[in-house]
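Reopening this one. Same input as before:
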Amino acid sequence: MALFNYNYAKFIWTFPIETEDISYATAITLCEKINKLDKEELPLKLLDKNNQLLAILLRNEGKLNKAAELMNTIYNNQYQNACFNEACQAALDLGAIYRELTWFDKALELYTNYPVEFVTDLQLKNRLYMNTGIIYK
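Same output, byte for byte:
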C-alpha cells in the first residue's frame, strides 16, 4: 500500500490536473499516510523518497520551513548511509529551499562543504557548482 501511495502521489506531482485544485493536497495526504505506517516494515529508501517528494510538495505549497526541516532530515539520512548521489540531490533541493527563504549563507555552506569527489553523477556535480555560482552572483 505504501508503494502505491508513493507512486500515486508522484504521478499527481508529475502530471497535475490543471482543472483540479486539490491535486497537490491529495499528493501531500498520500505522502503523510505513508509516514504514519510502521517505519520498521518499510524500506528506508522508500521513506526517504516519500519524504523528499513531500518536501517538494510542501515547498510548492509555500510551507518552506517545514520543507527545509524535512529535506534536511533526508539529506542527513542519505549522507550517513553513503548514498552520495541521492544526498547530493537532497542537498540541491535543500539549498534551493534555503535560497527561497533567503538563507543564502546556509545554502552556500551546504554547497561548498559537500564532498563532490564522492558524487558519480556528473549532472549533479555540475548543478552543485552552478548553484554555488548563482549565490555568488
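So the earlier flakiness isn't reproducible anymore. For the record, The mean pLDDT is 89.
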